[in-house]
Design a protein that fits this description.
Elements: E1 3-7, H1 12-23, E2 27-32, H2 39-49, E3 55-57, H3 63-72, E4 77-80, H4 87-92, H5 94-114, E5 119-125, H6 149-167, E6 172-178, E7 180-182, H7 201-210, E8 216-219, E9 231-232, E10 234-236, H8 237-252, E11 260-265, E12 271-272, H9 273-283, E13 290-293, H10 308-313, H11 322-336
UDP-4-deoxy-4-formamido-beta-L-arabinopyranose is lined by residues 85, 87, 125, 127, 180, 199-201, 204, 216-219, 230, 232, 273, 296, 299.
Amino acid sequence: MKTVLVSGGAGYIGSHVTVELIQSGYDVVVADNFSNCDRTCFNGVEKILDRKLPLEEIDFCDSKAADRLFATHKIDAVIHFAAFKAVGESVADPLKYYGNNLESFVNVIGAARKHGCSNILFSSSATVYGETDKLPVTEQSERQPATSPYGNTKQICEDILRDCVKAYEGIHGIALRYFNPIGAHPSALIGELPRGVPANLVPYITQTAIGKRECLSIFGNDYPTPDGTCLRDYIDIVDLARAHVAAVTRMVDSKMKADYEIFNVGTGKPVSVMELVTTFEKVNNLKLNYRIAPRRAVDVTAIWADTAVANSELGWKATRTLEETLASAWAWEKRLAGKE
Ligand code: WQD
């Protein structure tokens, strides 16, 4: 049985990937420093799987700890999520982002290489494409200069992985460029658990609907789009998690066609903020309190994926509908509030 290390595995995406990996027959070691999540998600993972999982509390900026982790467990592949991810915060505190996101990834690759783990999967982001009017974006679309230090750390980490694969014999790398992950596990036992005021749209919507937030601000309705609000490619978290299983399997089964590969992980369908809000209201049979607010800096007008390569090469396709995903997000929020 192959073992996958999931760094940042107690977080929103990491916890859902852990569930799918185990249910696909992998062994998983979860490592997290709990700087951006608490054990709620991890406890939920164990409830879904009905088993205890090895959990290493570790900060990957500590290279000795990273080394010890790979020396303790025989790791066949590592999926690296451990990073800070708040766009706005990265603009206010770039050093925190460059320090943490780059050093942790360098330490993971160094420890993996030293201990014979040759498969590295990096959690990248569509943010690397920046503002573009050539849509949908393919993996060959040009990366634009990052609009935030967060986005820049994603671009730099892709380059670190690409260069390490080129330089070091036997290391393989895949970068998954996610679009906008949303929703929660159908069990409502795990989901997104942002600390403080959510920066992302869907958790802000669900917290407004549950009464934790007064009113959703829709950042701008004067964009050159059909209804004036921004377009995004919202990918269901379970679909996203399954793309990771497909990518890890491609690596450990030596099915890669190059030592470094990139895949867009999205639905290929653009959805506007307003469409998402009205779909959320309809599928959950509620009225959301929202207002139109000024545009938010660093927002791009539109971005969505050409998913042909991921569909054909990974044999993966997003399957959950926007309605199902928004219903799952609401079920999770209600459970958090003890209403379910
Ligand atoms: C989506 C749309 C906002 C909040 C970022 C990162 C990406 C990924 C997801 C990190 C935009 C609008 C939002 C609100 C709003 N990883 N919005 N009111 O900015 O597309 O992507 O988060 O988490 O790498 O770049 O996601 O959910 O913040 O915004 O109107 O209260 O919703 O303007 O158009 P974004 P988002």
